[in-house]
Amino acid sequence: MIELIVVMVMIGILAVVVLPRFDLLKGFDEIGYRDKVKATLEYARKSAVAGRRYVCVTSSSSNLILTRNLNDPDGLSLVTAGCPANSGNNQLALPSTDTRYCPSGTMANQICAPSGVTLGGPGSTIFSPLGSSTGGIYTIQVNGAPTATITVVKETGYVY
């Protein structure tokens, strides 16, 4: 009986001291953010084609913001379409919002990075109604070290 109590006390001490040092979820937030950025870029392209409008993905301090140009696309090009203001009907809401890492008051057309994760790349990527884009390479860094890249092909808008 004494041995059992001693073993239980030792397990308790280990649980208090050692288990908090194991970060069992390390990496999941970063992988989730990478997948969310890729899915958001794919969604922007599909929305541009389906809605026959130019869609702009703006990168702002590791956040992505989706807007759409509501003007008739026939007289516009990727150069002249530009990124409209992030207000009113110009906002392109995401199918599901995850504001876990966003400050309060964040709109439904925005995704935010977890702490320690930064997003580098073009300031904006525009997708045309035909699916082409201005292209670019987005890099995701965790604590300053590059961990993943996401490429948007200029001619086709394909995201990989």
How would you characterize this protein structure?
The chain has 160 residues and is an alpha+beta fold. The chain has one domain: minor pseudopilin epsh fold (3-Layer(bab) Sandwich), CATH 3.55.40. The protein contains 3 helices and 7 strands, in the order H-H-E-E-H-E-E-E-E-E. A 4-stranded antiparallel sheet has the order 3-2-1-5, covered by helices on one side. The N and C termini lie far apart (60 Å). The model has no long low-confidence stretch (mean pLDDT 87).
Q: Uncertain segments of ≥5 residues (pLDDT<50)?
A: none
CATH architecture term: 3-Layer(bab) Sandwich
| Cα Rg | 22 Å
Record the strand order, biggest sheet. 3-2-1-5
| Element string (H = helix, E = strand) | HHEEHEEEEE
The total of helices stands at 3
Shape: elongated
Number of domains: 1
Multimer state: single chain
Total number of strands? 7
CATH class identity? Alpha Beta
Structural class based on helices, strands and sheet pairing: alpha+beta
Q: What is the percent of helical residues?
A: 25-40%
Largest sheet: 4 strands, antiparallel
> What is the end-to-end distance?
60 Å
CATH topology: minor pseudopilin epsh fold
Strand content: 15-25%
